[in-house]
Amino acid sequence: MSASPVIIATGGANLASLQFALQRLGYDAPVTEDRETITTASHILLPGVGAAQDTMKRLDEARLSSLIPKLKQPVLGICLGMQLLFSGSDEDSARCLGIIDGQAHRFARDPGLPVPQMGWNQLRLEADSALLDGVEDGGYAYFIHSYAVPPGSYTCATADYGGPFSAVVETSNFFGTQFHPERSSVLGARILDNFLRL
Q: Which tens digits make up the pLDDT trace of 16-72?
């Protein structure tokens, strides 16, 4: 198995910032849609910005939507990438990868809480996870999203925006952060480093 992590090319604008964040930790992670490169990588990062249905279409066209659920190495979904690990999203009734049973829902309308949520929010630790090693309860992470997954058995940390939602999830070798670790300062760097040490 290659010692190199890879970033799946989902078309999001955050790919370069994620690459730079990994480089600061000493890792070079190519952005790729190549099935062989992904299959033989040490760690897989699945970022995402934009619409669930559009990103799933891109994964389908690259024949990755059938591959990703079968991966055995650690996989980290980021923002929309985390939501794609679930069964589906209310956004355009999108079908997602179905690795985790659950559905992403749009935030409820609230005059005091603009959608998308954009900015820093606190994490509440809910369960042990190697991803959260050294992360303090109440630490701040950077979010930008309109849809969120409710807490469930997969939830390791929550945040609150008109109600609690899943901020960190884990099941088997699949992990997810609803926030952007590459934009979350020291806390985010710690989470990325923890993931790459799995």
A: 999 999 999 999 999 999 999 999 999 999 998 889 999 999 999 999 999 999 999
Q: Are strands 155-160 and 44-46 parallel, antiparallel or unpaired?
A: unpaired
Which member of 43, 79, 145, 170 is catalytic? 79
The three-class DSSP label of residue 96 is: coil
Residue boundaries of the structural domains of the chain: 6-196
Per the annotation, the verdict on 126 as an active-site residue is no
Catalytic residue status for 180: yes
Task: Give Cα 82 to chain centroid, integer Å.
Answer: 3
Tell me the C-alpha distance between 100 and 9, whole Å: 21
CA torsion sign for 64, 68, 73, 78 is: positive
Sign of the dihedral defined by the CA atoms of residues 173, 78, 107, 128, in that order: positive
pLDDT digits (tens, 9 = 90+) for 119-174: 999 999 999 999 999 999 999 999 999 999 999 999 999 999 999 999 999 999 99
Which residue among the candidates 43, 96, 145, 182 is catalytic per the annotation? 182
**Which is the catalytic residue, given 43, 96, 156, 180?**
180
What is the rounded distance in angstroms from the CA atom of residue 103 to the CA atom of residue 152? 11
- CATH, domain range 6-196: 3.40.50.880
Cα–Cα distance for residue pair 141/81, rounded to 1 Å? 16
The whole-model pTM stands at: 0.96
